[in-house]
Amino acid sequence: MNSLLLKSAAELSALLRAGEITSVELTTACLDRIEALNPKVNAFLYVDREGALEVARGVDAARAEGQELHPLAGIPIAVKDNICTRGIPTTAASKILEGWRPPYDASVVVKIKEARLPIVGKTNMDEFAMGSSTEHSAFGPSRNPWDLNRIPGGSGGGSAAAVGAFMVPLALGSDTGGSIRQPAAVTGTVGTKPTYGAVSRFGLIAMASSLDQIGPVTRTVEDAALLQELLSGHDPHDSTSLPDTPSGLVAACHGEAGSWEGAGSDPERPLEGLKVGLVEEMHGEGYAPGVLEAFENAVARMRELGAETVELSCPSFHYSLAAYYLIMPAEVSSNLARFDGMRYGLRVEPEEGPVTAETVMRATRAAGFGEEVKRRIILGTHVLSAGNFDAFYGAALRVRTLVQRDLEQAFSRCHVIVSPTSPTVAFPFGSKTNDPLAMYLNDIATIPANLAGIPGISLPAGLSEGLPVGLQILSPARADALMYRVAAAIDAALGHNVPAACPARDWEE
Ligand code: GLN
């Protein structure tokens, strides 16, 4: 493999700025590796070679003229296929959107284009972001670069597999209940769900709007900070966009922002004075022993770096998964009502009987949606129906408030919370496909952050059974810089070495 592909975006940025490499050279290396490996990994649903190279050529010409460019200009990026890209197919891995080319760009894509990052293609995912394995993609699952017989996580398994297999240094994901963090955990990559509202959702195909958030997938914490800073900013097209989005994320990775009360100044002890919460409900029953061992080692390392640990309890977390699986489908049933065979993509006419709006809608939705999507629409419609609304949806909203309160109380006693990101390492294909509840349990540690709107990052914490284990760090809303500062210190202490140990490094192209 071209050795440029092993480098982080921060390193590539320095090489590009120094004129030691060109964006065309780098982008071509990514595209060649994608072409060679995608049949094996199925990380990409669409590759835009010409479009990416055109941007790369433009960046090289602008640099030759001495123009001032964004630090990430010229660095290739992959975009999850539920994020709209003008003129480029965007399917959310569903048959119902097959062949649809959006007439507009998502706000994050506008920012990427303004900063001139070549978009190499669109990544595979569970249909409409519903799942934890990519097995619900209508176009076949993506494979884990650590073991091709295992899932790369989901729903954003394509983005995580692409970054983990050194096809591209940067990717975008979306996280409704863990779809950036859990794939990052099981592929040995880094993934962040920013504070709700920090990154615009305009142009993200909505799953559950009160939970959805776009964020970065990378191989280092600093790269995630660089990309989140590019994506952030108020967007008048998104009514939930924050007026002042968290900043200082890259500076925080260098210990220059995101500090906490009582922080020390000894460079050997970067976490001095940091209170780290360990939530009883997030590292016990249901977590694999090997995952817990890697997690405990990471916590021990944090103590060596100066952190103090605080034992906490968040009793509402026992009900957070149940609450999520009521609130999310309720929003799904409403958001997916727009796929009616009239407006976008697929249109199927009934085989017999009259052709009316209703029969076309029924035939289109029956043919276009996969089983998991149908399951959630039915569940959501049920929990929102007149007789059930209060018992199910209302009760779930009350649990959501309790989760927010438990977290507020927890953060009155600690600066950040840490936990394993996912209860197990990557599991083999087919082992949970027919058991939706077993599949839903993958999200047990990631869901509270979505319910409360707080930021969360997953970074590689070590290996169990030769497979990566993710460490999750949560901080209060808008304290994204604090989260990045802590994550970068741990990433440096652990030697940034997990992604580099991935066997995909040695794959022949
Ligand atoms: N796995 C979770 C689900 O199936 C999370 C999905 C997501 O974050 N998009 O709902």
UniProtKB/TrEMBL annotation:
Q: How does it assemble?
A: Heterotrimer of A, B and C subunits.
Q: Which GO terms describe its cellular component?
A: glutamyl-tRNA(Gln) amidotransferase complex
Enzyme class, one word? ligase
The Amidase domain is annotated at 25-481
Q: Which GO terms describe its molecular function?
A: ATP binding; glutaminyl-tRNA synthase (glutamine-hydrolyzing) activity; transferase activity
Keyword annotations from UniProtKB, A to Z: ATP-binding, Ligase, Nucleotide-binding, Protein biosynthesis, Transferase
Q: Which reaction does it catalyse?
A: L-glutamyl-tRNA(Gln) + L-glutamine + ATP + H2O = L-glutaminyl-tRNA(Gln) + L-glutamate + ADP + phosphate + H(+)
Query: What is the name of this protein?
Result: Glutamyl-tRNA(Gln) amidotransferase subunit A
Similarity annotation? Belongs to the amidase family. GatA subfamily.
What is the scientific name of the source organism?
Answer: Actinotignum schaalii FB123-CNA-2
**What is a biological process (GO) this protein takes part in?**
translation
Give the Enzyme Commission number: 6.3.5.7
Q: Where is this region: Disordered?
A: 133-152
Q: Which domain of life is it from?
A: Bacteria
Which residues carry out catalysis? 80 (charge relay system), 155 (charge relay system), 179 (acyl-ester intermediate)
| Listed NCBIfam families | gatA (TIGR00132)
**InterPro entries named among the record's database cross-references:** Amidase, Amidase_CS, Amidase_dom, AS_sf, GatA
Q: Which PROSITE patterns match?
A: AMIDASES (PS00571)
